[in-house]
Design a protein that fits this description.
L-asparaginase_N; L-asparaginase_C; four-stranded parallel sheet; EC 3.5.1.1; 21% strand
């Protein structure tokens, strides 16, 4: 007899280390046959959920992810949305924060869990982290209370913690604890028990219909400010043909150089309808333009405050909003407003 808290989960493999196994003869890594998933991870049979698996026709390295792949992914979710209670996306860890952030904006009114996970070691490795990440991600995607899903947003699970995906950054290439969410608490933690931080979850409206956005803009640059940045280089970057958006990584709480040429070039960019977003290059913390003289000028010329958004989410939000044909003031207001939980609701000082 099926319990009302049993879930149908769709596992989508896009590529990445988690889907690789080591050839015992050559020692090289090769793609894992997910038809043999239960053979490799028999523990999955202990779960009360029903699991189906589909893969990208050609699994790709996460470094090669682009708009086409993002659209393919949301279309898989869209076409299977009614049949499944939750989705687990297997993805390479290198760009997982970028992809999961973009997907969070593409899926409006999401009322089911979409959980990204991966691993630092292949699924067939003796010391792999893949099994725990995969098993717990499926458990999280299947969590229900009174027949209704508990997590209803895009999450990223890695090494015992579930984070809001658009709050994450990959911070380590070698440790199992590869991701961090420094400006927002974990949504759930896996220990002896699976503990959900329900006060941190997004509030969802189950009756609202899912809206899938498939138009994205990729004419975007990330420009990291450093003390010796020069006028020629910055001008060259800001005059990139057809440039639509810039994520400007600044010092501390949003500070930059006071040189007039610096502000002049940014002002020209803003006047040329290039959306310039100020984010801090610090791992944690928030932009607060106007707190110091070194950020007051940016505020005056129309640079958008990224507040405590991550660089990955800032890129994703620009990709999403730049296709909407919004006026400058409206664009700025919407960017500085939390749409998918990517910004803190209270200004940080």
């Amino acid at each position: 007899m099926t319990s009302k808290n049993t879930s149908n989960i769709l596992l989508i493999y896009t590529g990445g280390t988690i889907g690789m196994i080591k050839d015992p003869k050559s020692g090289t890594l090769k793609p894992f046959n997910f038809d043999q998933l239960l053979e490799r991870i028999p523990e999955l049979q202990l779960l009360e959920h029903h699991i189906d698996v589909i893969s990208f026709d050609k699994p790709i390295d996460s470094s090669d992810m682009n708009i086409t792949h993002y659209v393919n992914l949301v279309e898989l979710i869209e076409s299977n949305y009614a049949q499944y209670d939750g989705f687990v996306i297997l993805h390479g860890s290198d760009t997982m924060s970028y992809t999961s952030s973009v997907i969070s904006f593409m899926l409006e009114n999401l009322s089911k869990p979409v959980i990204f996970t991966g691993s630092q070691l292949p699924i067939g490795d003796l010391r792999t982290d893949a099994k725990e990440n995969l098993i717990t991600s499926i458990q999280i995607a299947g969590l229900k209370r009174n027949g209704k899903t508990i997590i209803n947003e895009v999450g990223l699970y890695f090494e015992y913690k579930l984070y809001r995906a658009n709050r994450t950054t990959k911070i380590n290439a070698e440790h199992f604890e590869a991701f961090a969410s420094l400006n927002y608490p974990a949504l759930a933690e896996s220990g002896v028990n699976l503990k959900v931080n329900e006060t941190a979850l997004l509030t969802t409206h189950k009756k609202k219909k899912l809206v899938v956005h498939k138009d994205l803009e990729d004419a975007i640059l990330i420009i990291k400010v450093f003390p010796a940045i020069n006028e020629t280089s910055l001008r060259h970057l800001l005059q990139t043909p057809k440039l639509k958006g810039v994520v400007l990584e600044t010092f501390g709480s949003g500070n930059t150089k006071l040189d007039q040429w610096f502000l002049k070039l940014l002002h020209e960019a803003v006047q040329n309808n290039i959306a310039v977003v100020n984010v801090t290059q610090c791992s944690g913390g928030s932009v607060n333009m106007g707190k110091y003289e070194t950020s007051e000028g940016l505020k005056k010329i129309g640079v958008i405050s990224g507040k405590d958004i991550t660089t990955e989410a800032a890129v994703a939000k620009l990709m999403y909003l730049l296709t909407k044909k919004l006026g400058k003031k409206v664009f700025r207001t919407i960017f500085e407003t939390s749409l998918r939980g990517e910004l803190s609701l209270v200004e940080r000082y």
